[in-house]
UniProtKB/TrEMBL annotation:
Residues 614-676 form the MrpA C-terminal/MbhD domain. It is found in: Cell membrane; Membrane. The chain crosses the membrane at residues 6-27, 34-56, 76-101, 113-131, 167-191, 211-236, 273-296, 305-325, 331-352, 373-392, 412-432, 453-476, 503-522, 571-592, 604-622, 629-650, 656-678, 690-712, 753-769. NCBIfam families: PRK12647.1 (NF009287). Keywords: Antiport, Cell membrane, Ion transport, Membrane, Transmembrane, Transmembrane helix, Transport. It is a multi-pass membrane protein. InterPro entries: CPA3_Na-H_Antiporter_A, MrpA_C/MbhD, MrpA_C/MbhE, ND/Mrp_TM, Nuo/plastoQ_OxRdtase_6_NuoJ, Proton_antipo_N. One of its GO terms (cellular component) is plasma membrane. This is Multisubunit sodium/proton antiporter MrpA subunit. Residues 132-417 form the NADH:quinone oxidoreductase/Mrp antiporter transmembrane domain. GO terms for molecular function: antiporter activity. It comes from Martelella mediterranea. The keyword Nucleotide-binding does not apply. It holds the Pfam family Proton_antipo_M.
Amino acid sequence: MTASETALTFVALCLPLLGAVLSPICYRAFRSGAAWLLAILPLLSFLHFLSLVPQVAHGAVLVGGYDWIPSLGLRFSFLLDGLSLTFALLVSGIGTLIVLYTGGYMSDHPQRARFMSFIFMFMASMLGVVISDGLLMLFVFWELTSITSFLLIGFDHTREASRRAALQALIVTGGGGLVLLAGVLLIQHITGLTSLSALLGSGDLLRSSPLYLAALILVLGGAFTKSAQFPFHFWLPNAMEAPTPVSAFLHSATMVKAGVYLLMRLNPVMGDTVYWTTILPIFGGVTLLIGSLIAIRQTDLKQMLAFTTVASLGLMVMMTGMGLPHAVEAAVLYLIAHALFKGGLFMVAGIIDHETGTRDLTKLGGLAKAMPITFSAGLAGAISMGGLPPFVGFLSKEAIYEALVTGTGITLIFLLVAILGNALMFAVGFGVGLKPFVGAKTETPKHAHEAPVLMWIGPIVLGGSALIGALFSHGFHEYFSNPMSSAVAGEPVDIHLSLIPHIGYPLGLSVLTVMIAVLFYWRLSSVRGFMAAVLARVGSGPDKWFDCFMQGIVRLSFAVSQKVQPGRLEFYITATFIAVGAVLMISLFSFGEMPPMPTLSDDIQIGHWTVFIIAVAGLLAVINAQNRLSAIVTLGLQGFAVAIIFLLLGAPDLSFTQFMVETLSVVILTLVMTRLNLVPSDHRELRQKLFDGAIAIVCGFGFSMLLMRVTAVPFNDALTNFFNTYSKTIAHGHNVVNVIIVDFRGTDTLGEIGVVMITGLAILALIRIRAGRRFAPSLGARDEDAQQEKAQ
């Protein structure tokens, strides 16, 4: 990647962030026209990525970026190959249409500018995920998608259902993100590589590691939670509480495919193993069945589409992990087709809701005359979702069956799962894209009429793109599906599927799927009732389990808090010193770091011994003090003794500082003790005193051993030489200690001053509160007398 391409890619990533900043300004200045202006920003990003398509189509892998933390080998870098570039085009292209759609859908909403800003922030986060080359950079953007989706799902925060759905999505995907972080760090530990481009060129380095299975499980944890695979599928349908633009963008075309993107990205280095080809097809197949069966049960248009999204994600994961010839091509084609038809159908569902006032399929019918453009868009999406020509959905379904018929044994089970899942999704797709528009006209809460251009332009463009991609399949494969499949497979791939039918098993299975699907659609009400009865018999599912889990977490947290946070300062101090003593002693003994016992030096003079004796006497006085005031005063002897030792050993500056700190501490504590009515004596039992004394001895002994061990290390005078050399030339000071405190450690010193100031203010407030309580009765009596005089 050239310097200009790198700079333009960085700009393309930042343009959505600019949109987030400009949204409030544009809506205040242009109101209804703001959406058209704001859509220019993601359109520019789309055009930049589109300009790179010819290079990538001819085999180029574009890598570039900027140094982030060179000492750690971290770069803010980009990787653009067939996989990441296609995803970037989907994110920016559909994102442009979503911005326009939002402008029409939220035209009267008072918080439309805030919502648009959230949309742009999510767009930037998702772009960062798919074009990142650095593993940690990918993780950062991965978590940003979870945070921004939380804001979007919970946009209508006054509704409890929206808050619950947002929190659920954040916990599930955020928790999976933490698991992914562990996987990323483990991959870096195994390979020593920090970038995807280097990792993809490492061959079998990751697969041959004994830690491969652990890394795989951690990666799957992140991917499965983000892409709503069983048993984490429940959060995605609940996220339909968000406004429809969110559903059309995040939960059909972009965010939920982040997990699929990660699996496809790592397929060349983690795929083609027994674990990979077992775990992915099983979980993907189960997710496909569960999603499609529950989808046929729904009557809410968005819920129907949401559960088919779950099913489609399962199908993508299943095909990504099959390990069969052409399976990767099938997964890639279906991913592109799904983004086009599902994004369009979600927009159609939103238009129906916006213009009729309901999303209930049982209350909709005969809308084709009132909404002809929406009907055309919905029908195009339904045909593509059903896998019928002449749309890209047909090519993807043919590719799925072409891959699965080559397998044997257990692969036939997955073939049957794919047929049933596709048939159910066919019925649901036509239930959303066709059924509301045909039949007898029904009465709706609002008078049905065609939506404004801002709303129908999106589904029309997506439906047209699916049509053009299939009609010009040769160019579509050359520039999009072939480069993407090659990146996922790790080797060149050439797809030849077209709209011209080829007699064989795939075509026969497609016909069989359509026949089953037509039967499901014809008896849609009966099938819905049957599935409702089955689900009622099954009982609670993962959604209810999540509520039980959260309740259990709350109860456990409360119980633990009651034990570890009882509200007693004595308990906190005791626990802290036990932990300190344990860390010191265990570390010293476990690693054999106990220092040799010191020997008495002949340099110790009578003055030194006198100070030591004073310190010991002060210690005994503290232990035997009858009240806290005496203990504080005698405790000051320890600090003064240490200050004298510093003075005798040739450190007058340090000694003066110690004198000041001890004097200030004794004065402040004495002042507080004289103002507060505290218990004057120690009421602890002998057993408690012995226990506390043991802790004190362990901590004191541990710190002594640690200091002796540290001082036994050969002295490194690098810092000494540095300060001696630069104190005059840089800080212009002759007193090295003062220069260190004021200049080299100026911020640290400022922080210490801040701590002392805050402590003084807290003590002053405490004294004033005590004094106020002392004089409160007399003040109250004075006020009472004044009131009586006024009454007279």
